[in-house]
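Example: MFS transporter.
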Amino acid sequence: MTPASGQAKRRNHFADLTPLKASPAFARLWAGQAIAGIGSQMTIVAVGLDVYRLTDSTLAVSGVALFALLPMIVAGLYGGMLADAFDRRKVALIAAIGAWVATGVLALLAWTGADSVPALYALATINAVAATVIQATRSAIYPRILPRELLPAAAALNGITIGVMVTVGPALAGVLVATVGFGWTYSIDVILFTAAFVGIASLPKILPEGQIHKPGLESLREGFAFLKRAPNIRAQFLVDIAAMTFGQPRVLFPAIGALILGGGPITVGILTAASAVGTMLASIFSGRLGGVRWQGRAIARAVQAYGVFVVLFGVVILVATITGSADSVGLEFSEANLPALLLASLALVGTGAADEISAIFRTTMMQTAVPDNMRGRLQGVFTVVVAGGPRVGDLYVGVLSVFAALWFPPLLGGLVIVALAALILRLVPTFRGYDALDPRP
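Written out as structure tokens, the predicted fold is:
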């Protein structure tokens, strides 16, 4: 690690709050995202529960994500083009209004008892599309309201936000749906979402710098042509795709909770939350990451650490399978194999922490090495990777688990991740030598 600025020597282990002090615009945007994000996560969980209430079908619940996948991909690509062609403040604000209206309609349908599965699918898709556009636009905004040396710290602060959103939002949704019902749950999200407007509306006008391409096939072609000429950005995409494709054991959690560790739904909830806890911890203790200079190597090493933790998760499940018995576990949490559950959770905490460290550097590289008038489109492509990778990973794990034991997909997948990250690091010398002081795509 080499200091990236003269202030690096004064860094401590805790998250660097300097971006919040240096840029009031970033502080408002960050706070608005944090508050609104909790509500958004509440609504995501509530919609799933609502669909299950109407259908009693897990397959129907999975349809919420599948129905929104293609629109999210289109929104990621088109939203990135919009961010590279128009005032980014206006693009984000219009998308936020769309999400707010869709959530308001969800609340209205719940209060009137007029909700239906098609309506829930459609409104959840609008929310997902709007969130995708906002994300692509927001990522292109940060380099315009913060100095370059503070972008890693800003990415870490966003990691804290994501950790809080993913842990607090779903928990609140479960409590609120169980106590006051769907109408109030959606309505509270409508109220919380107004915080996003404050953060976005207070931004200055932010027009793209450099040559502007109107949204369309030509603009998209220019974006992919740039990616073809950007080996470092392309390498980080490939490393991330490897991690998401081979390191996503989440579809195994229900079977693990029922057949191996015991504890049923509570075990599934603990395993699901563990990764988010890791994300939040890595962000909180991210103070020294801003001084890392060789960020390409840091990304690859963090992804390899992610793979190692996935392997450890597989080993824990393997040992629990060998030492346990199908008759010794059950759906009650009192019957769970607590030592194995603790070790499995710690491994998943490690995956979340490693992924967040990688994400901090990947985000920083995207925001500093990519020209301003290309940032939206490249972020759009990245959104497609993020949206599609885990679903491909679910398919990999699901298919492999049919032919092998539950411990095998994460054990093999983690080893593949470590090997692929090493291979990419070796084959792309510019990525291996990427210097934060001289960012090049």
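The chain has two domains: 13-208, 225-441.
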